[in-house]
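Lab notebook, page 48
Experiment: co-folding of the full assembly
Goal: obtain a model of how the components sit together before planning crosslinking
Operator: M.T.
Materials (sequences as entered):
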Amino acid sequence: MNEQQVHRILIYDKAAADVERLAQLLKDSAYDVTLLENAQEAFQFCLTDRPDLIIFDIKREGKESEDFFLQVKNQYSTHRIPLLLTIVETDYKKRVELLEMKIDDFVPKPYYPEEVAARVINLMQEFKPTTLLPKAVERGFWGSLREMNLIDLIQTMELGKKSGIIHLNRGDKDGQIYVNKGKIVNAVVEDYDSVERAYLHMLTWIEGTFNVTFQEIGMSGPLKDDNDSLFREGAKVIDQWRRVTGELPSLHTCLVTVSTEDAQALSYAERAMLSQFHKPKNILQAIDVSDFDDFDGLKVIKSLLEKGLLIKTDARQPNDNQKAATFRPVLDRAHRNAKSPYSHIFSIFQRNLKSEKNSDLQLSMNNNEKSVDGAMVAKSRIANKIQLTKAELLLIRQKLGR
Amino acid sequence: MSLLTVQKDTHRIGEIVVAGPSLPLQKRFITHLCNEVVITNNSTVFGRSKITDELQLFFYGIGEKEQYMDFAWDLVAPKMLGYVLVYDWFEGNGFTSVQQLLNTLSRHVESHGIVVGDIGGMPINIDRAVYESGFSLSSKLYFSLWDSTDKTNAKDVLKILIDSLINHLE
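Observation: model returned without errors.
Model output:
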């Protein structure tokens, strides 16, 4: 899609009169809209004019719409056109089946044309950058290592047998884990020449950010055939690291030596570490430039703090923030471009309540009532009926064991 | 790609929502119970556990606070079996988030639920019975502890929820 180009949207609906308002809204948003009622004509239009997005409807009765969808899907299996489905179908299983067939978004009927128009704009924005960027950043996700640590990320990739690169940023340092079909094949971080040591080192990055990009990884030969041992070892490292760091100030805290008078009474390791703090340095940096491994370094620093030979200082290393600042736009860009292959599944459970005002499906809202966190709450509760029989529940209970 | 395959011969599904302030915790909870788990968009987890060829449990894990309000409660709530709210027992803000979510939820839906505090393998001097049977906060709401480092412990939490449903039907 070209930035200057007017985007073409095809609306295929057997009841064209029902979608005229939607078509008008999209035209008002500067889209070139074609409205067709006949499946064959619609498919012909796809072949000759190749729309940038298709909105279509699948009726409960008749197979024309489904045939049209399958034709489009087959025709554009490699160069996909975003597909937005509007459907009356209320059966959950049917919805999931449809969404699994690579439909990009889904709007239940009856809908408000404004909502569909908003979703079209979102879809257009989602698809636009992916055609301009290299394949590596087409899909992925990002976030904070506080929310998902390295083990969580690798487990996530293992579950789906995914390939890609996990980029980690600790604030002052970057690293990458290469995953091939769910198995770690390489780990790269500055100053660590061994894959295993680099992996273990990055496990200690419990603060910072990550950015996962899904892509083919050509390397072969996993670090370990079985990820379980890596996870067990990793969980232990993270747990120990949390325990040790819990007894220390933030690892980004700058420390400085206050006195070296008693240095003779110190161990060799303590003297070596103390020498790192003649100029203010944060804990992570001091360990990085020392000859200690991460845990030994932390223990020595803890000992020096307890002996009062190191104190906190307000001095800052501009480098940290600069690096974080340069990484942030990369993450932001990745976030904007990220489109998980599963994201469409979530859309069936996601509603924009703001756009559903007055809808039949909308919860009864009372504008004067607010919950503790300020979110709007429903005035009336949704009645719930236990859908399974007692026998079925007992079966589940039996399966769970005593 | 069929990551959450819906089998056509499956007739009965029990749906359980797993919510809380930390998606990784919910993911772990669902992973311990399900043989098939899908992470979507870094904000939702789907899991499926087969009980028999005809009966399955579906788990929907929703993460961030914004998701609670956008979640289609009106679609899921009327037929869900119940909900599980998980949070980190040692995280002060975790409980506050759960409290807010519970307030919101209790106004939205009439359903059975259980609040579980994850102790993450840390030794804690609380009677083992709390893990095994929890204690009731109301006729439909229970509290229990959960050890996310013990893969079998999530089943104990689920048992409490299922037991409360069975008791309700008796």
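Interpretation: The longest helix of chain B spans residues 92-108.
Next step: discuss with group before ordering constructs.
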